[in-house]
Amino acid sequence: MSVKTKAFVSILLAVMTLGVVITNVVIPYFQDASAFSLHGALNKLFGGFFQKPHPSNNNHQRNIKNTSSSSNSIPSQTSSSLTPPPAIVPALCHIVNGSLPDPNCTPGTTNPSITQNNIKNTICVSGYTKTVRPSVSYTAPLKRKLMHSYGFTDSPSNYELDHLISLEIGGHPTDVKNLFPEPGYGQYNFHIKDRFENYLHHQVCNGAMSLSEAQNEIATNWISSWTKAGQH
């Protein structure tokens, strides 16, 4: 056999061997889905050298946290959202019988969020009034305006900007119709009314009187109601 023939036979055998390898090894190796792409094949052959980097777990968790925080966050209330609207102050008011407010100017209004059903969780809880009492920035200028409406020209220290229906029995905190300059002088001054307010609060929270009854007693004629109660 000539040299050329031997070389041809060697090449032919090599090709046949390569064909067997391709048929029995290479083709089965690439049967999974990733082998159908060039990127997948290169990853198979070179052990992930061509694999694209993935975001780190820390970055992924941070993204989840940021998304969760933005979706569940509660908008904070600003001071402007808690400030009552500008008060419409009545005019030509006068004190009745030395201590009672003008019913046309100060009829008394209640807090709609306070009901008979929730008094044990609201007005009967110690410290409740502190949570609803309006700020001095609201009450101080309003007091001066209402003193002018009621015709008082002496010192503001002689008066208390009082809630006709007191906060401790569900009176409205900021409604002008529930506020008036109550004198600190005379027989039935604001010190006496404070005692009556405490009495009514005690009666309501002990179940001896309904909330609406107490509110009506102090709004109509608190002096008469206080006298009938025996001035406790």
Helical content band: 40-55%
Computed structural class: mainly alpha
Measured on Cα atoms, how large is the radius of gyration? 43 Å
Q: What is the ordering of alpha helices and beta strands? A: HHHHHHEEHH
Question: Beta fraction of the residues?
Answer: under 5%
Cα shape: rod-shaped
Distance between the termini: 137 Å
The helix tally amounts to 8
Enumerate the strands of the largest sheet in spatial order, edge to edge or round the barrel: 1-2
Low-confidence stretches: 32-42, 48-57, 59-83
How many domains make up the coordinates? 2
Average the pLDDT over all residues and give the rounded result: 78
Sketch the major β-sheet.
Answer: 2 strands, antiparallel
Keywords:
single chain; 232 residues; mainly alpha; 2 strands
Explain this structure to me?
- The relative contact order is 0.10.
- Strands 1-2 form a two-stranded antiparallel ribbon.
- By secondary structure, the protein is mainly alpha-helical.
- It folds into two domains: about 70 residues, no CATH class; about 140 residues, no CATH class.
- About 20% of the residues have low confidence.
